[in-house]
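# step 3/5: fold
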Amino acid sequence: MHDEKDVRVVLADDENHVRLLMKRIVLGLGYTVVGEAADGQKALELYEKEQPDLLLLDIKMPIMNGDEVLEEIMKQHPEACVIMMTSKSDSDSVKKCIKLGATNYILKSPLINEIRTRIKESYTKFIQKRKTS
């Protein structure tokens, strides 16, 4: 486990412009992007290869959906910090992901500052929870 200064992140979204935006936000937080995936299968492979501290994972993706990727990751790595990303607040999908073990979720449409705050708060809470357990 790393401290907050060298957080390793994998970004998984099928839309290139979303990955680009998220990368800017993540780098702006001082985190390091160690991989990017445009489909669920690649996201799962990258997670296994890189073992990142944080995975930003889109719910709707080709080959494997984000919830399927999340489920696989949580089987192998129940301690994983995964923040789901979605364009619509499809509460059923979001609830399912939270139930499967996602740390939090981000609506991709809000302002960059809201996204930045949500990522930072989620990861900080995650670390604090890990330290107390």
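# step 4/5: annotate
The first strand starts at residue 8 and ends at 12.
# step 5/5: archive (pending)
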